[in-house]
Write a structure and sequence with these properties.
single chain; eleven-stranded antiparallel β-sheet; 14 helices; globular; Beta-lactamase/esterase; Beta-lactamase-related domain-containing protein; Beta-lactam/transpept-like
Length: about 400
Amino acid sequence: MKHKRELPIHGTTDNIFLEVRDSFKRNFTEGWEKAGAAFCVIHKGKVIVDLWGGYADRECFKEWKEDTISTIFSCTKSVTAICFAILVDRGQLNYSDKVTKYWPEFGQNGKQDITVEMVLSHTAGLPYFPGVRFTEDELVDNNKMSHIIENLKPVYTPGTRTAYHALTFGWLTDQIFRRVDPLHRTVGQFFKEEIATKHYIDIHIGECSSEENRLARLFKCPPTLVSREVAYDRSILKLARYFYNPRGYFAAARRNLSLYGTDFTMFNNSDLRAVGQPAVNGIGSARAMAMLHQLVLDGTLLSKETFEQIRQPRNMTAFDHMIGEPQNKEHGFTYFKSPLQTWQFGHPGVGGQMVRADVDNDMVLAYLTNGMKTAGCEDHVFTFNRLQRKVYECLKRIPKFELPPPEDVDE
């Protein structure tokens, strides 16, 4: 029987952050990473950590390479949030605007007072689309999608609670976005033309057949790793009760896409990826996610005035009735507290994906893995937590002078 060999860790790490490389390697040697992963950190505009290793396709022993990209899942929402912030910055949209200002037909069946911010902050009352099981034809037809959404009735009174719009966020935002954008582009088209092409950001939302050969294949979390993750963080069991509750929001949301399967490895299907759903199925690299959020931090994409609106949450933490725990979600972003208790904005993605931008420390962290973690997101992913803690430990050692050039750490 052919055995998988231990693969080397590749990339560069600044000398002060060499311990981050060691932590990244330990994620593999200790069995926390079952396939491949990449991790990138930018500090004050400089890439100080850029690592990758393991398998892009575990079943056929294809290595994760420097140009490997992977499904970023709900980190796509942070990309979408940045696109919306650009519309706000250009004066084409206000977060407080009612959706009906741009889409009058949307206001049917109790949706007349839903604002753009309610959609972006997951309080619009549409965490799933009741009674809808999308066909492939409906997913790629903007007019059919519009009619489906216009006829929906909210699951709860809009604005009265937070319930993560895991999938519906993408369908809703895309329809709003193409009505606001003067060229009527989808989020994916806008991002490609206004950001990705201009700034060489290797993230794609929508048709991307030319990138398929670089794309990592998702690998389902094995039961042995599930047990280890639960032992690490017992709160995962509470989240699982919400996720697997057959009468819960998550089960209903999964039924909207039941055509494609029952678990998240459905996103290995290139037909589904081509839909361009700007909530969950963007693809890209950890390096690209970090670079994108760096463009927000350094003022390239947004004015100071708009940046001040999104840099940290304005409201109190709210219990999320989809996820099963309190979270901070506004303007399309999720907000976190760093190990140094500074605010970070970005978004988690199911299976362990993460991007976080720390304004006060002028730093961005991005992590991708195709070995799906059962904990999935937030602060429950051991591999990301280990890396983040080590980054912030090393950060305290940085002297006031300029950092030296990164060191090649291929092993």
